[in-house]
Amino acid sequence: MPRKVVGSAQRELRPTASPRRLIDAPRWAGAIALTLFAVHPVFAAQQVRTADELVGAVEDGNEGDTIQIGSGVFRLKRPLSPKPGMTLKGAGMDATVITHMATWRPFTKALPTPETTLNGFDKDAYLIRLPDKAVGISISDLALRGPWMHGAIFGSNNRELSVTRVRVQDFLANGIRTFGLKSSRIIDCEFVDAGGRWKRGGIRGDDGGISGGAIFGTWTTDSEIAHNRFTRTQRGRARGHYGIKGRQFKRTRIHHNTIGVNFAIELPFENDEDVEIDHNVCHGAISIPKHAGGPVPASGRTFRIHHNYFTTSHAIEFVRNGVEIDHNLFDFDVREDGGGLVSGFGKAPAKGPAVFHNNLVNNPGRGVIWINEPYVNLTVRNNHIVTRLTVAPRTEGLFGFNRDCDFESFRFTGNVIECRELPRALFRNEESHAAHVEGNRFLNVTDAERFGNQGGAARAGLEEPLKFRCGAHGESTVDGWRFVRGGGG
């Protein structure tokens, strides 16, 4: 069906209210917008200018309509529900703000919302409620703000959803909340305080509870989350939320995001397949644990985590089977070294495999890999690991494994491991020394003599120099051990 434009091109309507500036936009954003309007003036459409006009355009419009929303603050008293194929396009994040009237305050008793069932949801507690199974809805160039809303956008079994250049700010539980999302894109958005922490019965989670996510997707497939920025300004445990939270992702790529919240990405429990997490700046952990590691799909991979920049020593929560972790820079402050880089705290044996290779690790804190679960088929190769003297001096071995691991299936090859200022062992227990350890280069590794001729491993280390752009729009660069914010080649 051809797409329609609501309104005429006869004249420009003035908004009835001026937008409240939520976050400063880059100076170049306005210049780009002016250029676009200057190049295509004949296509300028009359814009809806009030909340009533917006609601009327959506409710009375047809599938496939494009609704141009002018500058201003649009206060809703019930959820906006665009029809399949509709486009809601504002005048920019700093110009068009959709929020709620002060009298619209959904009850919080249903919070936290269930994670794997639609039962118990208040589906009317979101600013935008996508119709079930609707295809092809697009939302762009506006801000969604809802200090009394459970979330910004809710949808169930939608396909080809596009959310671009949208600021999602100040919501109680989640930002974008979806079930069964397919073939969709969330790109170039900003998420600011887009969620919170709740205990059962709608009590804020100051002393416990379940955290929401700026993006929270259950059963997401064949989709892309890219070039987004996640920020938390509100403090207190109840204000804590995850950047990207999900239950079962398949064939989905999460890339070039800047994630500045405590948990960057949480994808636990379900049977994830072919999830690629790359070129992100993560100021929080990536959590991917599964009881007994979970099944390995036909492709052989559940997760590939590569070309990311990590700043938190508790960087990756394990265990999972079919994982590849490669070409990342783990760069941890010696004053904040309380975590193990890869850590798992379950009990069920996991069959693997996992490969950890071509990473740079600056100060792994308590250790590089520290997992309680008995594991099989682990390869650690061609990494360069440097330990430093931390505020709480760490003396334990760099790799801590359950004594019941199948160490005959473990391989440590081609690594450079330097323990500066304070010597440390490679392994924490005697059984671990049954692993195959060869072709490494060690400095101040106290059990190095157990492995023979490590000093002659001239080819140890990364197979090629580590250099890549990362973060939203590649705003930063990793160049070897250096992280350059906002620059690089």
Detailed description of the structure:
There is one protein chain. The protein is mainly beta. Helix content is 5%, strand content 36%. A hairpin with a 3-residue loop joins strand 13 (197-199) and strand 14. 48% of the residues are buried.
Layout of helices and strands, plus pairs?
Elements: E1 4-5, H1 27-39, H2 51-60, E2 65-68, E3 72-76, E4 87-89, E5 96-100, E6 126-129, E7 138-145, E8 151-156, E9 162-171, E10 176-179, E11 185-187, E12 190-194, E13 197-199, E14 203-204, E15 210-211, E16 213-221, E17 224-226, E18 229-231, E19 242-250, E20 253-255, E21 258-260, E22 263-266, E23 275-278, E24 281-282, E25 285-287, E26 303-306, E27 309-310, E28 316-317, E29 323-326, E30 329-331, E31 340-344, E32 354-357, E33 360-362, E34 367-371, E35 378-381, E36 384-387, E37 399-400, E38 410-413, E39 416-419, E40 436-438, E41 441-443, E42 467-470, E43 476-479, E44 482-484
Parallel strand pairs: 1-2, 2-4, 3-5, 4-7, 5-7, 6-8, 7-9, 8-10, 9-11, 9-12, 10-16, 11-17, 12-18, 16-19, 17-20, 18-21, 19-22, 20-23, 21-24, 22-25, 23-26, 24-27, 25-28, 26-29, 27-30, 28-31, 29-32, 30-33, 31-34, 32-35, 33-36, 34-37, 35-38, 36-39, 38-40, 39-41
Antiparallel strand pairs: 13-14, 13-15, 42-43, 43-44
